[in-house]
Amino acid sequence: MSVDDVLNIDRVSDETGATLKWEPLLVVDDGKVISDSSELGGYSVTAEVLGETKGPKINIVKFKNKTGYKKRLGHRQKYTQVRVTGIASNTNK
C-alpha cells in the first residue's frame, strides 16, 4: 500500500469524507522489513473514506438428491472504499 491507493475494506460506519487512522502490522521501507510491534508503534496510516461499494454477487445453491430439496441464495458483501492519504513515521532515525 502506498499514498493515493484506493482500497476496499470491510464496511465501517464512518461517513464519506471522514478520516481513518490505522496502525500498520508490517512496514517495508527501502527493502527493510519491520514487523516487530515495538518498532511499529512509531508508524501510522491515514485514509479518507470515499463511500460504500458492494462486492461481486455470490450465488449459493443447496441441493439434496432424491428428496426434491433445492434452495437458491445470493450474497453481496458491502465494503467501504478508502483512499490512503498518508503514511507517517514518528520514529527518530
UniProtKB/TrEMBL annotation:
GO terms, biological process: translation
Similarity-based family: Belongs to the bacterial ribosomal protein bL21 family.
Protein name: 50S ribosomal protein L21
One Pfam entry name: Ribosomal_L21p
Keywords annotated in UniProt: Ribonucleoprotein, Ribosomal protein, RNA-binding, rRNA-binding
Gene Ontology MF terms: rRNA binding; structural constituent of ribosome
UniProt lineage: Bacteria, Bacillati, Actinomycetota, Actinomycetes, Streptosporangiales
Known function: This protein binds to 23S rRNA in the presence of protein L20.
GO cellular component, as recorded: cytoplasm; ribonucleoprotein complex; ribosome
